[in-house]
Specification:
The structure is a single chain. The protein has one domain. Helix content is about 75%, strand content about 0%. It contains seven helices and no strands. The longest helix is centred in the first third of the chain and has 24 residues. It is globular. The protein starts with 7 loop residues before the first helix and ends in a 5-residue tail after the last helix.
Length: about 150
């Protein structure tokens, strides 16, 4: 098995989160046990809530055809959500065997999800922006807390 080296981004972000308080080991063990199932649930949920199901509703078709700007953005959102969902699904198997590859897939998928949500966010709503930042930081905090358990 090849040894996976940490990239500079992972090292720098890891330094930041290593300064924060350590979560109890009982919580970390449970998080590691449930991580594959959380990833598969997030993958399925992301794909299903991406809006792909609305493509099959005939009542929404005129909206897509009449409003080209909304349509293009909407299809970009659906496509990026499918990529994010599939990435979470692909992380299931490596997470199940505590592979660092699975951990990294979740890390980069989390970052991609954050970028997607910020890109498609209404810029006039600062509560949503703050909420996205908080959710990402909490997610990264937990991810970097459990990183040592993956090889």
């Amino acid at each position: 098995m090849a040894i996976i080296q940490a990239d500079s981004f992972e090292i720098e972000v890891g330094k930041f989160f290593s300064k924060l308080p350590i979560l109890p080991s009982s919580f970390l063990e449970k998080a590691i046990f449930f991580a594959p199932f959380i990833a598969i649930t997030a993958g399925i949920g992301t794909i299903l809530t991406s809006g792909i199901l609305s493509l099959f509703r005939l009542s929404s078709l005129p909206i897509f055809l009449n409003n080209k700007v909304f349509g293009v953005n909407y299809y970009l959102y659906i496509a990026s959500s499918i990529v994010i969902g599939v990435s979470f699904l692909l992380a299931f198997s490596p997470l199940s065997v505590r592979s660092l590859k699975g951990w990294r897939m979740v890390l980069y998928t989390t970052l991609l999800s954050f970028i997607q949500s910020m890109f498609f966010l209404s810029l006039g709503n600062s509560v949503d922006i703050l909420g996205n930042i908080v959710v990402m930081l909490v997610g990264l905090y937990v991810l970097f807390q459990i990183r040592g358990y993956y090889r």
